[in-house]
């Protein structure tokens, strides 16, 4: 009964797609539609290729997953200057065993905070999701924005500060500069 957290491989796209589809299927009953509910295996393969997808493997089976998207990810809208985590899922048979918390903690702390030195991380979830917003708030996330996705789902965006000093320094610095401002720097 051993498990490990590692990067997903493109060859696992079909298995990861299956895990995600099964995990997100109950949300459809609540009228909650995320992009993964319409994603193909090729879409999942593309995300593995262009983003950072971690999986928790238990006894050789994909049991949990979480993906991180960065500002340089092609053709994606970015609301904030920090990494965006999404496609969080735990296999039905493994729920309640701590695997979800473990993979989230690993991505937040080991990967984003300790390795990449990211000041913060953010995510989005459906406002009417019955328990996810509360779960994320218990993990230290705070709401900072709301929007509606292209599928009509009202979202709340939440952020978590990972390195307070870096976050405070970033909050003081302008994050976007005009072309004119950049020209004065060269």
Automatic annotation (TrEMBL):
Q: Which Gene3D superfamilies match?
A: 3.40.630.30
N-acetyltransferase domain location: 3-163
Q: Where does the source fall among the domains of life?
A: Bacteria
InterPro entries assigned to the protein according to its UniProt record, in alphabetical order = Acyl_CoA_acyltransferase (IPR016181), GNAT_dom (IPR000182)
Q: Does the UniProt entry include the keyword Acyltransferase?
A: yes
- SUPFAM superfamilies according to UniProt: Acyl-CoA N-acyltransferases (Nat) (SSF55729)
A Pfam family cross-referenced in the UniProt record is Acetyltransf_1
- UniProt keyword list: Acyltransferase, Transferase
What GO molecular functions are on record for this protein? Answer: acyltransferase activity, transferring groups other than amino-acyl groups
Q: Which PANTHER family match?
A: PEPTIDYL-LYSINE N-ACETYLTRANSFERASE YJAB
This protein's name: GNAT family N-acetyltransferase
Origin organism of this chain? Rahnella contaminans
């Amino acid at each position: 009964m051993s498990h490990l957290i590692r990067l997903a491989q493109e060859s696992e796209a079909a298995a990861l797609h299956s895990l995600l589809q099964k995990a997100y299927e109950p949300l459809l009953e609540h009228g909650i539609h995320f992009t993964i509910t319409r994603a193909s295996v090729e879409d999942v393969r593309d995300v593995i290729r262009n983003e950072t997808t971690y999986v928790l493997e238990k006894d050789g089976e994909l049991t949990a997953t979480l993906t991180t998207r960065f500002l340089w990810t092609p053709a994606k809208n970015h609301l904030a200057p920090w990494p965006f985590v999404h496609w969080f899922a735990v296999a039905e048979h493994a729920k309640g065993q701590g695997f979800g918390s473990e993979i989230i903690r690993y991505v937040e702390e080991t990967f984003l905070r300790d390795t990449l030195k990211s000041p913060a991380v953010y995510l989005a979830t459906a406002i009417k999701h019955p328990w996810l917003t509360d779960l994320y708030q218990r993990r230290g996330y705070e709401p900072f924005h709301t929007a509606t996705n292209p599928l009509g789902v009202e979202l709340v965006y939440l952020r978590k500060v990972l390195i307070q000093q870096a976050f405070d320094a970033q909050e003081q610095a302008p994050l976007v500069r005009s072309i004119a401002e950049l020209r004065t720097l060269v």
